[in-house]
Amino acid sequence: MKTLKLFPAVAAVFFAFTVSCCSHAPRYSDRAERLLSELNNPKSDYVMVMAHRADWRNWPENSLEAIESAIQMGCDILELDVALTRDSQLVLIHDNTLDRMTNGSGPVSNYTLAELKQLLLRQPHGVVTENIRMATLKEALQLCKGRALIQIDHGWDLYDEVLKEAEEVGLKDLIIMKGRTFVDRKEMLYAPQLSVPKEQGYTLFKQYKEAGIVPPCYEIVFHELTPEVEQFAKDIVESGSRVWVGSMWKAADGGLDDDRAALSGDPDSIYGKLVDMGCSIIMTDRPAQVIESLHRMGRHAALGVVE
Questions:
Q1: Residue 112 and residue 116: Cα distance in Å, rounded?
Q2: What residue segments make up the domains of the chain, in order of their start?
Q3: Residues pairing with 178 in the sheet
Q4: Cα-only R_g, the chain
Q5: What does each C-alpha distance from 85 to 65, 109, 111 come to in angstroms?
Q6: Rounded Cα–Cα distance for residues 270 and 212 (Å)
Q7: I need a labelling partner for 244 at 20 to 30 A (CA). Which of 90, 175, 279, 290 fits?
């Protein structure tokens, strides 16, 4: 039987969120469907948390263990990286080579899936694990089914392959792809990445507006939080999309990053600036920290973990 685990400290937030959802929408079959409804509602107060490479601070990045941990802590979206094996199987790994994250070496594309499954993943500090192995995309999809949304990175040339596997698992509508070019594919969720205040960002945003296409979200990348960037974020929300910001490093978030939040002793002031500028999807390397901060702001409900 499926149950929902709630954090007592945020029960009130969860109740308010539940009442809001139930009063304006039909019942959801699972948590992922509910999150999809939130993704498509840019005016919602709910801020979604995306775990960058899953919970990589506690488990090998992109591993099933890291994914499970991120879901258990309450993350809404799992950002995962894909690569293609020699026998055309999709596996989860960020790098093109095996050296950093496994006890193997060389390009991922030189190995078959069976060969990769013989390798062991490394912990964040580089130590080889005893029994944690590389996951396939299909294994990750099955683990996330009904429990969280998935954002695929490093999949710019693999849209069709990813969508095929997602469809086989019944998750085609719950996969978010992204890229820096104009893509008009109604069969998939696509998030354009906009660099601002660079011309690329404004040009791509204009292309979507002129085409009458409203993506579920735009990822914006900025070196400094300026009035121009803040206005651009507001324009995105007014166009009907959510604003997604990665809080992993200064070059992408104007210094409103996870490490600065942790060292400041006041993470709410850092993440609060992102929320104030209109950001409603935060991709983070410290998901527990972001979730706790958003709970204090009343902007993230403990939707629970579907088991």
A1: 6
A2: 8-60+149-297
A3: 191
A4: 19
A5: 21, 5, 6
A6: 34
A7: 90
| Two tokens, residue 256 | 């409103």
- Tell me the pTM: 0.90
- Alpha carbons 156 and 177: distance in angstroms, whole number: 8
Report the C-alpha gap between 175 and 150 in whole angstroms.
Answer: 5
Q: Which residues of 226-265 are buried (b: 16+ CB within 10 A; e: fewer)?
A: eeebeebbebbbeeebbbbbbbbeeebbbebbbebbeeee
What the block records as the tokens of 75 is: 């993350």
Single-letter amino acid, residue 226? T
The tens digit of pLDDT for each residue in 35-90 reads 999 999 988 999 999 999 999 999 999 999 999 999 999 999 999 999 999 999 99
Give 166-175 contacts, CB < 8 A, sequence gap 24+: 166/141, 168/138, 169/138, 169/141, 169/142, 169/145, 170/145, 171/32, 171/141, 171/144, 171/145, 173/36, 174/32, 174/36, 174/149, 174/150, 175/149, 175/150, 175/151
Q: Which two tokens stand for residue 91?
A: 């596996």
The CATH class of 8-60+149-297 is alpha beta
Token pair listed for 288: 């527990």
